[in-house]
Structures are given as structure tokens and as C-alpha cells.
Amino acid sequence: MSSVVAVAGVGLYAPGFPNRSSWLSGERDASEPPPTGELLDKRNRRRASVMTKAIADAYGEALAQSGLEAETVASVFGSALGEASTMIALLDQMWREQSGLSPMRFATSVHNAAAGVVSIATHNRGFTTSLGADHDTPAMALLEGIALVCAHEIPVIVACGDEASPEGIVDEGHGWGSLTVALALVPERQASAQHVCLSMPAQGTPDLVPPDVPLPMKNNPVVGLLDLADAVARRRRGRLRLDRGRGLGYCTTLRVRG
Amino acid sequence: MFRPLDPVPITGMSLCNALGGSLAEVRQALYDGRSGLGESPVAVPFPTAVGAVTAELPELPEALEPWSTRTARMAMLLLGQMEPQLRRLRERVRPERVAVVMGTSTAGADVTEGAYRHYVQHGDLPADYDLWRHHTYGAVLHVVKNLAGVSGPAWMVSTACTSSAKPLATAQRLIAADMADAVIVGGIDTLCSMTLLGFFCLDALSKTPCRPFGAGRDGISIGEGGGLLLLERKGDPLALLESVGESSDSYHISAPHPEGLGARLAMQRALEMAGCDAEAVDHVNAHGTGTRLNDSAEAKAIGSLLRADVPVVSTKGYMGHTLGGAGATEAGISMLALLEGWLPPSLGAEPRDEQIALNVPTTRTTGTFKRVLSNSFAFGGNNVSVLLRSV
To answer: Are A128 and B378 inside 8 Å of each other by CB?
Structure first.
């Protein structure tokens, strides 16, 4: 069984960089347009957190580039803290306002809120999961995604995102800005000459230098997936670390076909 | 359809919930038909019954003391129950070939809600609070890996009430793709105010012990605890994990599809992956939360797929809905049926709801159970059905 996959699509959303091409051009949009959540149906878009909309944007972009079927593609969503601002809003209702909780907020506070609304919007009754592993979230989401591709020979979209660090529970000076990135993965045998292939993440020594990423985005727990998306889009070869030195040192090897 | 994978031996299990802090205690309470639901130790401004863990939790060793939380201590209790199996595992398998895939829905919410209350009252966090050691997923994973003496990949699935059922599927894939030789799977949730207040605001919480599939059911009872299972490529199995069916409702963020479409798909996929037909299922450990909508949707899904006489039991009347810990807990209880040939009565199902066209036994049932489906369904329309087989 092959443990190599090909990347068929890349998507991202970050403040000032609303999509893949804006990131690759390096031209930051100073107006920092918020995520649109365009992929989502109106009802869920209205209720979605900024983070869910950002994940939907990155997911939608990777999906469109890959040409995969929205109704059937499997998905893995990774986030270190999940719907953190929704959790803080609930804690504020509990301790600051001492009121009852908002049913809508509670229902969308789960880590898999984005997975749920994306599956509703895309009419997808297939596989979806949501996970976290602190600064190793990108590496572990990739592992889960690659295991799915390899074990079942199916395409998978891996999307990772964390919103800006929530005030109150993260110490001042240790915060981060929001970032979401998505990769569409397909079995290696479906790869074309244009595709970059990835190996299963494993602990090791990197030989690729990650790109310059502006602060505070650089401190985001999922920045490793941005590093990978950047390397894929620029068709770099080599071994890339997926945690910027803050996790357990998982790396993936990028190989360019042809 | 997903490509079928080889069955995986389950070589160890441990449970901890309102029924007790050991597999033997949990087993005995189930056998006796004795509920562990009672008064909530978490103060909430409404009546409700909860399944609190009253077992004494061990203190973490000094080196792990900074990671000490109720969740981490429950993890230590669960690992302690499996120590003989873990010792044998360490003798046979390199530590980096053992992965840890667990599930939770609350993570460290019980600690964080107290820390945030301090922040609101005093303008800063308590001096001893550390987000990365007390709240996030990595904290419990760090404790579990250290205590188990393993160093493979580790992550926490968080898909609400399916959180600890999905790791079984992941483990089967990791072993099939040769990414691991063994996987410690499971999940733990602890009681916290936010969960109780949240389900209350959704009007989904029962004032009394929950009554899954019963005529008078009016909501869930929240519980805490969880379970661990050890899955190995090779080993002396207690039971076999045949397959796991997973699906999405693609319907609503917090309500099930009214006809149980996603639930049926998950069960159907589990059966298809195992290459086995619906006639072969001898028992279903239902998700059976006790809300009117959930039980009705699940009953339709089961009724449309399986034999009418298949005994369907919800065990949430015993320890409550342990949310992120429920999938592993109920997979463990399903293994008891395979190993010992009896099913606990489905507490709360009397008087019966005539709309629930299932065989829901309200007394202990004995028999030979070769294949069992264990269902877990969650917010986000996330559905998992685990197919287990006797050895």
C-alpha cells in the first residue's frame, strides 16, 4: 500500500491574504477583508463564526482547484483550539452576564462545527472528522488524511485553521493571528505531472526553510500547513517541518513529479 | 464505498464512569441493572440527574504533575486498568509504532471555565492555569503517551458525541496503511457547567434520570468518564474490530435527520465494509440518548435496516451520556456482550413508546452474540457505527 499522496488543490484564508493567489503574490490587502463563507448556505453562513467562514473559504478554494466532487469527497478538519471565540462568548454569558446560554452558540461551539456546516452546504453525506493536537495539528491532520487516502484510495480535503488567540485564556505576548489552510489530497496513482507528492509525516530533520510569514500569523498553531501549502504551490522539493519548532518535529517530504 | 480493511484484534479495554472506576465494577452494575445517575456535583440552577465519577482518581507522577487535571487523572486510572496488556505491548512493539488516538468533546473545559471566572472577577488568570497543560488536546495526549510509554503519532478527535467512536476507525486505517502496529484508542469527558447549561438551553436535558426509548423520555442525562481500548495488528484478542461505518447527515448542525438517514448510512457502511449482511447483526448498543427526536430517528434507522427482533439496548440510563467518552464506553460494553453472552436491561425504556418499533429489552437478556453494532451520533450530523465481532 502506497503511503504517498498527491496534492490536487490548495486554498487559504488569512487576514490580508484572502486566497492562495494573494498569498503567493505577497501583496497583502491592508483592508483585511473578512472571510466570506461563500461556500456555506445562507442560514448557516449567518450563524457561522469567523473561523468557520475562514475554513469554508479555504476548503472551497482547494475543492475548486482540485475539481473533486463536493458531494462525496472526504474531509479532515484540524484545529488546536477549535471554536475558541464561541467558547469565550459562552463563558462570558456564564460568568460576566450571568445569563442563560445562547442555544445557537452552544450548538456551534463544538470542534466539528465547521465540518458540520460544510457537509450541509455541499450535500456531502460522506466521511468527515475533526481533530486537534496543539502545534502538531497540521502534521496529525495530514496523517489522518493520508491514512484515509492510502487505506481506502479516496480523495480527501485536509483543512486546518485556528482563529486569533482568544483574549483571556492566552497570556499576553503569546498570542497569534488567524489562519486557515486547506489541501486536496488524491491517491498517488491519480497524480499528474503537475502535482506535488507528499510522504507520510514522520519525525526527522528538515532541509527546507519555511517562508517568511508575518507576525502574528507566524505564531498560529497551524502555520505548518501554510508552510506546506506555500512549498506545494511553489513546487519545492525536500523535507519540510510542519510545526515551526513548537511541536514534536514531524516533517513531510515533497516530491515533484516529472 | 470505502475499501474493506482487515479486522483488527482488540486486546485490552478499560472503563470508568458513574458505575465505577474499574471494568469489574462497571460490569457488575450493568449486570445488576443498577443506574449510577444521581445528583449533580456541579451547581446548576435547575434539577437534573448526572452520572458523576465517584471513584478515587490517582495522582499523576511528579514529572507529570503540571498536567494534572480531572481528565488526565481519569486517563491514568484507565491506563492503570490496562497495564498488563500495555506491558506485553511494550515488550513486543517499538514505542514509536504505537499511536494514541483519543476523543473528547469537552477537553479541559472544566478547568478553563473556572480560570475564566477568575479572569472575569480579578482581571487575570489564576497563577497556576496553563492553557497548553490544562485545556488543549495535547495535554491529555502528553500524559497518556508518557504513562503508557509510547511515542507514536497522537491526536484527539473532537466530533462531539462521536469523538471516541471515530478513533476506532482511525486505528484500523493506521494499521492497514502500516503507519502503526498498535493504537491506544478511547476518550474521556468530564462534567462541567457549560455542558449542563448548554444542553439545558437547548431544552434537551431531562430533569430525571434519562429514559432512552421510553414513552416518557424527555431528554438526556449528562455523564462523565470514558474508556480505552488497545488495538493491535497481532495479539490475543478479546474481540475483533470488523469495520466502522461513518457518515454525515448533511441536514442540521444540532438535530438529527428525522428519518435517521445518516444513522442508517453509517450502519450500512459498517456492514458493507465487513462484507456482512444485516441479518448477521445480533445486537445493537444504541446511541439512545433519551431525547424524543434522537431516539425516534435512530429507531427508524435501525428498524429500516436490521431484523425486527434484534435486541437494541441503550446504556445511557446507567452512566448518562458521557459525550466525548460515549463511543469508547459503549464499544467496551458491546464487547462484554460478545465475551459473556448477556445484555443489560435498557434502563428507562418502560413504559414503552409504541412509536419505537424495536425490540428494546427491559430485563437482562442472555444469548450468543457474534456481531454487535455500537452506534454514536453527534452534533454536526456526524454518525459512526462500530461493528465488533466475537473471536
So the answer is: no
Instruction: Give me the residue from B154, B262, B381 closest to A133, CB to CB.
Output: B154
Question: Around A43, how many Cα atoms within 13 Å sit in the side-chain half-sphere?
Answer: 7
Of A110, A124, A132, the CB nearest to B137: A132
Q: Which chain B residues are within 8 Å of A171, Cβ to Cβ?
A: 125, 131
Chain B CB within 8 Å of residue A204 CB: no
Test the B interface: residue of A73, A158, A169 with most B CBs within 10 Å: A169
Please name the member of A100, A125, A147 whose beta carbon is closest to the beta carbon of B201: A100
For residue B32, the distance in angstroms to the closest alpha carbon of chain A comes to 35
When CB atoms are compared, the residue of B3, B155, B379 closest to A131 is B155
Neighbour-count burial of B230, counting CB atoms closer than 10 A to its CB (0-12 exposed, 13-18 middle, 19+ buried): buried
pLDDT in tens, B33-64: 999 999 999 999 999 999 999 999 999 999 99
- pLDDT tens-digit map of A33-48: 999 999 999 999 999 9
Evaluate whether A157 touches A144 at the Cβ level (below 8 Å). Answer: no
Quick: pLDDT tens for B68-85.
999 999 999 999 999 999
Q: Tell which residue, B228, B267, B278, B212, has the closest CA to residue B245.
A: B267
Residues of A in Cβ contact (< 8 Å) with B136: 80-81, 132, 134
Tens of pLDDT, residue by residue over B226-262, are 999 999 999 999 999 999 999 999 999 999 999 999 9
- Predicted model pTM: 0.98
Residue type, A186: V
Q: How many CB atoms lie within 10 A of CB B122?
A: 9
3-state helix/strand/coil string of B214-268 = ECCCCCECEECEEEEEEEECCCCCCEEEEEEEEEECCCCCCCCCCCCHHHHHHHH
Of A52, A58, A47, residue with least CA distance to A14: A58
Q: Rounded CA gap, A5 and A148, in Å?
A: 10
> How far, in Å, CA of B111 to CA of A10, rounded?
37
Please, are residues B287 and B164 in contact by the beta-carbon 8 Å criterion? no
From the centroid of its chain, how far is CA A123? 20
Strands A74-78 and A196-199: unpaired
Element (H, E) at B82: none
Through-space distance between the first and last CA atoms of chain A, rounded to whole angstroms:
22
CB B377 within 8 A of CB B357: no
Provide the chain A residues 152-191 that lie in CB contact (below 8 A) with chain B. Answer: 152-154, 168-171
| Residue A205, CA atoms < 13 Å, CB-side half-sphere | 0
pLDDT tens-digit profile of B103-149? 999 999 999 999 999 999 999 999 999 999 999 999 999 999 999 99
Buried b (16+ CB within 10 A) or exposed e, B58-85: eebeeebeebbbbbbbbbbbbbebbeeb
| A residues 206-225 lying closer than 8 A (beta carbon) to B | none
Residue A140 to residue B119, Cβ atoms within 8 A: no
Q: Are B309 and B148 in contact (CB under 8 A)?
A: no
ipTM over 0.90: yes
Residues 6+ apart with CB under 8 A from B149: B86, B90, B95
Tell me, what DSSP letter sits at residue B105?
S
CB-CB contact of A163 with A50 (8 Å): yes
Task: List active site positions of B.
Answer: 161, 287, 321
pLDDT at residue number A171: 76
Locate the chain A residue with the closest alpha carbon to B120. A96
